[in-house]
Structure formats: C-alpha cells, structure tokens
Write a structure and sequence with these properties.
With about 140 residues, the protein is of the alpha+beta class. Helix content is about 10%, strand content about 25%. The two termini are about 20 Å apart.
Length: about 140
C-alpha cells in the first residue's frame, strides 16, 4: 500500500475483496510500533458483526476505497482479537499465517539497550513487530 497516505484518512472508507465484493468499512488502522507505518486495518464486516483484520500490504487504495487481495470468506475467517487494543507479536504472527504472508525480519537488528520500557516485551528477531491502533 502507499505509505504516504495518512492512516486517519483510511478510517471510514469502504473496503473490497479481490473480486470487488464489499467487505465493510475501515474502523481502525494499526501502526507498526517501530516504524509508525500503517500495517493492519480493522474492517467492520457488517452492522452486528465483528471487525476483521486485513494487511495493508499488499492492499491498494484505489479511487477512495481499500482493495484487499484476498477473498471475503478468508477475511471474515481471520482471527478475532477485538479492536482498540495493541496487537501482540503472537497475534500479528497468527494474522500473517492466516493470510499466507511471509513474515519479514525487522529491517535492522533491535537495539537491546535502548528503546523499550522495562517490563515490556521486545519483538522476536524473526517475527513481526507489535502494532498499535491509530488514536
């Protein structure tokens, strides 16, 4: 996805699957903790249904709506972690596996002596970094 898009501008936009079928409306956008890059979108899949997480990469923003390169059924079956909370590395890994995406190692080795608070988890070297919802 284009990384120059303000994640706040994604909220409220419609989302469609690979076949052009409407999935729902974007409720929240989750940013990578380390880079601040939008990584996941939570899409409300119906009036009384839950939100489904979809990866923003390799999704595309076309003509004001998000186009996700997966079938609606796969998206609706994504693991449900609730919205408004921080995604843990384990939850993010489950999402990557659900969508059949490779988990890329961090772009640079983590700094073990700086950058995290005492008592907080540090990301696995070969796993996804944690993400948090855009306020």
């Amino acid at each position: 996805m284009q990384t120059d898009i303000d994640p706040r501008n994604l909220i409220g936009r419609k989302a469609f699957d690979r076949n052009g079928t409407k999935i729902g409306t974007i409720d929240e956008v989750y940013l990578d903790d380390a880079t601040g890059v939008p990584e996941w979108a939570a899409i409300r899949t119906g009036l009384f249904s839950r939100d489904a997480f979809v990866p923003l990469e390799p999704s595309e923003l076309l003509e004001g709506s998000l186009h996700v390169p997966f079938d609606r059924a796969l998206i609706k079956d994504a693991p449900d972690f609730g919205v408004g909370r921080h995604l843990s590395p384990e939850q993010e890994l489950q999402l990557y596996h659900h969508y059949g995406l490779d988990v890329a190692p961090p772009s640079s080795p983590p700094d073990r002596d700086f950058g995290h608070l005492a008592g907080t988890e540090t990301p696995e070297d070969n796993g996804p970094r944690t993400t948090h919802p855009q306020p």
